[in-house]
Each structure stands twice: as C-alpha cells, then as structure tokens.
Design brief:
Layout (H helix, E strand, L loop, with lengths): L2 H6 L2 H5 L7 H15 L8 H17 L2 H14 L21 H5 L7 H9 L17 E7 L1 H6 L1 E12 L14 E3 L8 E6 L2 E6 L8 E3 L11 E12 L8 E4 L15 E7 L5 E4 L2 E8 L1 H6 L1 E7 L2 E8 L8 E4 L14 E7 L7 H13 L6 H9 L2
Parallel strand pairs: 1-9, 11-15
Antiparallel strand pairs: 2-7, 3-6, 4-5, 8-9, 10-11, 12-13, 14-15
Helix pairs in contact: 3-4
The structure holds zinc ion (2 copies).
Length: 385
C-alpha cells in the first residue's frame, strides 16, 4: 500500500460503507462483496477481478484501526480525490510515465509531498517510503592481541553498508528517464492471493514489491537503486575486553534516513591468547615453575608483568605445588581505573634428566628426610592389601 493510494482511492466507497462504519459493518460488507466478486466464481471476468482487488485492498486498510486512521488523516489533508496522480500501464497500452521522485520527494531537493507523508505516517514505523528512519545496526569483528585487549586500543574498521545509488538517487532509472507505476499491482507493491475465500497480500512478482518498474535501468546500480558504500572509521575498544565480548558503539552504525538517528556499531572482539599470561576476570594469571629447593627452602623470583617492569615474588619456604600467590595491582585495568591482581601459581618443576651428582644428592636427601607425604592414605592402602 502506498501513500499515493491513500489519497487517490476511496476505500469506503469500494466497500459501500459510510465513513463512520463500525468494524462489524466493514467486515460484513467485505464478505458480501468478496463472495460476489471472488475470482473462482468469475473466471476470466477482468472487471470482477479488478473489483475483487479493490475491495481486498480497501478491507486491508479499513479493517486495521491504525491503517484506517492514517488513511482518514491523509484523505482529510489532501481532500478525497482532489489529488490526482496519473496512472501508468492499465489497459490502454500507453502507460503514462511519471517520476515519482518529483512527487514524493525522492529528488535532491527533498521537500514536497514526501515530507508531508513522512509526517503523516510517522517516523520509524516504516510505513510509506519517506518516513524518517533510524539507521541499521552494523556488525563488525576485530581480533586483538592479548595486550591490546588488556590495555584498550583504537582499531581502524572498514564498513560496507548498503546505501542509495548516487547516480539515480535510488530510483533505479537511468538519469533523465522515468520510472513507471507497476501495472500489475497498480503501484501498491503487493498482490492479493486467495486462499479459502480470504485475500492475502504478498509482494508483487512483477516489480518485486517496489510498485515501480524501470524500463531504462541505471548503469551504476543495474536498476536496483542501491549501492554499497564503504566507510572507514576508528572504533575505540575499551581496556579489559574479553574474548567473544560484544561492544556496542552508539551512533557508529548506518546513518539514519531523512533525519533519523544513526544505528549502532556492534563489534565482536576476538582476543588471541597470550603465550604466558591468562585471564580470570580482571586478574591476570601466570604459572610460575620453581625448583624443588626453591619451593622447599624459599626464594625470591623475578616475574614478568603484562606491559610493565618485572616484579620480585617471594616464594615462602615450604610452598606446595599449585599454591597461588597474589601480586596486587598488576592485573587488568578496570573501568574505574583501578587494577586487578596478578595471580602467580607455583608449579614445582621435576627435572627429566639428572646428573650423577644430582642423583647422588637426591639419594642422600631421601635418606635424610623421613616425612611420609602419604601418611593419610597408608591406612586405606593397608586395609585393601
Ligand atoms: Zn542507480
Ligand atoms: Zn507490482
């Protein structure tokens, strides 16, 4: 249904009801007429077919309170039938071409009726071709190094977004030529299909729902009226993003149409793992191998930090493998500027090969040390022997 139809067609007359008719009256009138003019009952009767289309369209609008209200408003504004638009196609075979752009504000100057219709049919509801519309959200993906993700980074992005063809301004017609109203759907872009005595609207197959036909297509866009525009922009990824996190950057998506706000840019972030550091929330993790003497006797070990100077970590004497030591403030930067911690997990390294001296020393050690680390298991082991 187009705005043009609203002004031009008298849906009340089509159904033979008054402007104040109730929904029940409208339904009753439609059913009666639909039975009478149904294509199944009037095979090959072009006039009946036309009438059936007319009443289906009228019912589609008047049976929907919202559409009916818009229809009434449009008719009030322009006066019923007082605003004539030449019709293309039809039975006379000499379709009158006209440029809808002139009437509906598609041209460079904008303005004209398009803006008025845009107002009538409200912003954002998508009704009518001229309503102000919010731009779409755009999805993008970036892959960051672990360090960039931790510190935050500004990444350049190339975004391809659908836009209006700059050559034909979206009409799809070669400049200087005109589009014409689709004769199949009379410019509505939809056709009625019948099932079980009821009419369903579906997109017109002739014009693919545009309501317009292009005889001489624009070379730039091959008649689609659309173009792909590439935008370069820089997206700020905040410090501390996680792998798989989605960042919404308001207003960086597709620009709005006719004064509508821009959509958002949604960036899905992938983060490469680090060779050494891991993450646990705002904390960084690090596995620190130590020797058995270091764990047993205690030691001070130099530990790297992410993007900063190394720190000294004190391994207390008697540290067991798997114990985690906390280095405060050496984790990831939080939103409020404070930082998480570096969690250092001690892992006692066992040498794969031993020198003769080391082997002899370990044998002496085993002789000297009589603690049984499995004392708590020995009872169970004996019981089941
Ligand atoms: Zn074009
Ligand atoms: Zn059509």
């Amino acid at each position: 249904m187009s705005a043009r139809d609203y002004v031009e067609k008298d849906y009340y007359a089509a159904l033979g009801v008054s402007k104040t008719a109730s929904q029940a009256d409208i339904k009753k009138a439609y059913r009666k007429l639909a039975r009478q003019h149904h294509p199944d009952a009037n095979k090959g009767d072009a006039a009946s077919e036309e009438k059936f289309k007319e009443i289906s369209e009228a019912y589609d609008v008047l049976s929907d309170e919202t559409k009916r209200k818009e229809y009434d408003e449009a008719r009030t504004l322009f006066g019923a039938g007082g605003f004539r638009v030449p019709r293309g196609g039809g039975g006379n075979g000499q379709g009158v071409p006209f440029d809808l752009g002139d009437l509906f504000g598609g041209g460079a100057g904008g303005g004209g009726l398009g803006d008025i219709f845009g107002t009538i049919f409200g912003g954002g509801r998508g009704r009518g071709p001229q309503a102000a519309r919010r731009g779409g959200d755009v999805e993008a993906e970036v892959t960051l190094s672990f360090t960039d993700a931790a510190n935050g980074v500004t990444v350049p992005l190339q975004l391809s977004t659908p836009s209006t063809c700059p050559t034909c301004h979206g009409s799809g017609a070669k400049p200087g030529t005109a589009t014409r109203v689709c004769p199949v759907c009379s410019g509505t872009g939809s056709q009625s299909r019948n099932a079980g005595g009821f009419a369903f609207a579906e997109p017109c197959r002739e014009c693919f729902g545009r309501g317009l036909l292009v005889d001489d297509p624009c070379v730039t866009c091959a008649g689609t009226g659309e173009a792909i525009s590439t935008r370069a922009l820089r997206a700020r990824i905040p410090a501390g993003v996680k792998d798989g996190q989605r960042i919404r950057l308001a207003g960086k998506g597709t620009p709005g149409e006719r004064g509508g706000p821009a959509g958002d840019l949604i960036v899905t972030v992938h983060v490469h793992p680090h060779d050494v550091f891991g993450r646990k929330g705002d904390n960084l993790t690090l596995t620190l191998p130590v020797t058995f003497p270091e764990a047993a006797l205690g030691a001070t070990v130099r530990v790297p930090t992410l993007g900063g100077a190394p720190v000294s970590v004190k391994i207390p004497a008697g540290t067991t493998s798997g114990r985690t030591l906390r280095v405060r403030g050496k984790g990831l930067t939080r939103r409020d500027g404070t930082r998480g911690d570096l969690l250092v997990t001690v892992e006692v390294a066992v040498p794969k090969t031993l020198s003769d001296d080391a082997r002899a020393a370990l044998a002496s050690y085993a002789e000297a040390q009589h603690d049984d680390p499995r004392a708590h298991l020995s009872k169970l082991v004996t019981a089941n022997d």
